[in-house]
Amino acid sequence: MGNSIYTQLYRKSFYMSNKKQPKNRSGIVMFGIVSILYTILYFYNSEKVFISFKASLDVLKMIAPILLIVFFLMALLNTFFNEKSITKHLGKESGFKGWFIALLGGILSHGPGYIWYPMLQELRKKGALDGLIVAFLYARSIKLPWLPLMVSYFGLDFTIVLSIYVILGASIQGLITNKFEKSYTPKT
């Protein structure tokens, strides 16, 4: 009861997060290093530096809307959903509804996977099952905007069968994760 490795790691990380820890300044350090490198390289080949900087801005423009959506969802999550409601909809007692939410959410989500990690971490902290998070991540391989293109290349039958297999695979991976979480009891 509550002695899985995930529970123990979560408790350990929770207690460690309450301790006074030094601030992580790796982002600021990385920004400084990149700025210094851009400045140095500017004197060697300014044209390529501008091309590189423009490419970086293009990537930022591409992911900025997705980042805003994820931050908005995280704000909604933290504002309107408490641990009880998350556990109710995505926890042990969620049943079919939890699987449906995880799979549909994965299919509807867009952008790079790492953008969704902070929100999934918050859901996990509030009681979402690890298996549902795995199912969400696995179901992300179905990309709605690409389905028409897939149909034009491979046909409707292939696209439907592949999508069904991906959904089944996501569910199986989630169930396996939940099974390992329940069955694993570390030696103390």
- Counting DSSP H or I runs of 4 or more residues, the number of helices is 9
Distance between the termini: 14 Å
Amount of beta strand: under 5%
Mean pLDDT: 80
Radius of gyration, in Å, reads 21 Å
Low-confidence parts: 13-17
**Count of β-strands:** 0
**SS-based class:** mainly alpha
Count of the separate structural domains: 1
The helicity comes to over 70%
Coarse shape: globular
Secondary-structure element pattern, one letter each: HHHHHHHHH
Largest β sheet strand count, sense and barrel closure: none
Supply database-style keywords.
mainly alpha, 0% strand, 188 residues
Task: Report on this structure.
With 188 residues, the protein is mainly alpha-helical. It has one domain. Helices cover 77% and strands 0% of the residues. It is built from 9 helices and no strands. The protein has helices at 5-18, 26-44, 46-80, 83-90, 95-108, 117-125, 130-139, 147-154, 156-183. The relative contact order is 0.10. The model is unreliable at 13-17 (pLDDT under 50).
Question: How does the SSE layout of this entry go?
Answer:
Blueprint: H1 5-18, H2 26-44, H3 46-80, H4 83-90, H5 95-108, H6 117-125, H7 130-139, H8 147-154, H9 156-183
Helix pairs in contact: 2-3, 3-6, 5-7, 7-9, 8-9
Summarize this, please?
This protein has 188 residues and is mainly alpha-helical. The protein has 9 helices and no strands. The relative contact order is 0.10.
